[in-house]
Amino acid sequence: MSKSLNTEMQRFKMLRRELNLTQQAFAERLGIRNSTADIERGKTRISGEVVAALLEQFGINPLWLFGKSEQKYLRPAEHSVLPKVVTLNSSENENIVLVNIKASAGYAHNLQDPEWYESLPAFDLPLPEYRNASYRGFQVEGNSMYPVLHSGEWVIARAEEKITDVKENQIYVVVLPDTVVVKKIIISGEKIRLISVNPEYPVIETGIGEVKEIWKVVSKISGQFDIPQNNFGTWAEEIRSELKEIRERLL
Predict the structure, then answer these.
(1) How far apart are CA 19 and CA 17, in angstroms?
(2) Domains of the chain and CATH, by start
(3) Whose CA, among 28, 170, 202, 208, lies 20 to 30 Å from 47?
(4) Tell me, what DSSP letter sits at residue 203?
C-alpha cells in the first residue's frame, strides 16, 4: 500500500467516525454503492466523484484528504450558504415561501428541486424592509427558543450569503443535511455551535461544511397575544385613598 493511499484511507475513515455515520450511511451520502468498507481497508481508491462529494457535502479540502495540507476544511468565506432555489410571483419578483413544521422535514432534501417549492404557500410583503434580498418563512417547532419564540409561531428570515456574515447575538434558521433548526450561532474554528435560548436544550455542534443554508430571523408572526398584567387600577385606587386621608386630616 502506498503512503498516499494509506493517508487517504486513514483520513477518510477518521472523517466518517467524526461525523458519527455508519459505513452504509456515509456511502449513501457520497453516492457510493454498498458501503465505504473497501475504501477504509485500502482495497478501493477514492474516486474523483467521491472527492467532489466530500467537498460539496462536508466542505472537506481535497488536499487535506490526500495528506498535502493540514487544513481540513475550506475557509468559511468560501462556503456559500445562499438558497439554492428562489420563487417568483406573477410580476417576476421574489415572494416569501412558507415552510411549515411538516414541510421542514423534507426541506433539506429538496433544496435544489424547484417543483417541490411549488407545493408550498407563498405571499408578498410590500414593505421596503423586505426588498432587495431573499426572504423565507419557517414555522417554529418545540420550545428550544422559548421565551423569545413559541412553538407554532412563524419567523420571517433573510438569506445570508456566507457563514462569516453570522453575528453571535442574532437568531438564525440553519438548514442541515437532515433537519432545519432555529438557533443562535457561535463559530469556533471549523466547527459551528448551535445554541438554544432555553438552557434546558443541549448545544448542537457540527462542521461548517454541513450547513446548507442560513437565514437571519428578522421578524415573527405569532398567534399569541398576551396582555401583561396592569396594576394601574390598583395604583389609582391607592392614590385616591391616600388623598382622601390627607383631606380628612386637613379638615
Answers:
(1) 5
(2) 3-73 (1.10.260.40), 96-221 (2.10.109.10)
(3) 208
(4) P
Q: How far is the C-alpha of 135 from the C-alpha of 173, rounded, in Å?
A: 11
Residue whose entry in the numeric block shows the C-alpha cell 398567534: 223
pTM of the model: 0.65
A 10 A CB-CB count for 109 gives: 11
Decide: 40 and 23 in contact? Cβ < 8 Å: yes
What one-character DSSP code corresponds to residue 111?
T
Please write the tens of the pLDDT for every residue from 212-236.
999 999 999 988 766 665 655 566 6
Cell 447575538 maps to which residue?
Answer: 169
For the beta sheet containing 180-188, the strands, ordered from the edge strand earlier in sequence to the opposite edge, are 122-123, 96-99, 135-139, 154-159, 213-221, 171-175, 180-188, 191-195, 204-207
C-alpha cell at 70: 493540514
